[in-house]
Amino acid sequence: MKKLVKLLLSLTVLFFLVSQTAMAQSYTMYGERMEKNYPTMAGEKLMNGIVNAATGWVELPKTIILTSQRDGAPYGLTVGLLTGLIHTVGRTVLGALDAATFFIPTTPVVSPPYIWQDFNKETTYG
């Protein structure tokens, strides 16, 4: 079991280094973005999945706050709480799914892709 964990950790670090090198090469000298290649897209999906699986719980207070600001505190503490629970499960499960299927690069299903991007926008899927 320890050998398997070490192997997976080593492969993750290796893949991360390769994806970072590929990402660094995907920019031109003047900062213009070139077309992404497979290692870059797969690395971004893996990172997005890991981060969303780890930070999905932040959806709960975020949704309560946004709903309370928009519709009032009682509504935010009831409907916002339930909606936040759904968003928490959604971001966490989709993040784990993205991390598990990183080798098939796709665009993020969750919008915004990371919880801290556009924090005042409610999470959407699709």
Written overview of the protein:
With 126 residues, this protein is mainly alpha-helical. The chain has one domain. 66% of the residues lie in helices and 3% in strands. It is built from four helices and two strands; from the N terminus they run ααααββ. The protein has helices at residues 2-25, 38-55, 59-71, 73-100, and strands at residues 110-111, 124-125. It has a two-stranded antiparallel ribbon. Helix 1 packs across helix 2 (38-55) and helix 2 (38-55) crosses helix 4 (73-100). The longest helix has 28 residues, at 73-100. It comes from Nitrosomonas communis. Keywords: Signal. InterPro entries: CHP04073_exosortase-affil. Residues 1-24 form the signal peptide. This is Putative exosortase-associated protein, TIGR04073 family.
What topology does this entry show?
Blueprint: H1 2-25, H2 38-55, H3 59-71, H4 73-100, E1 110-111, E2 124-125
Antiparallel strand pairs: 1-2
Helix pairs in contact: 1-2, 2-4, 3-4
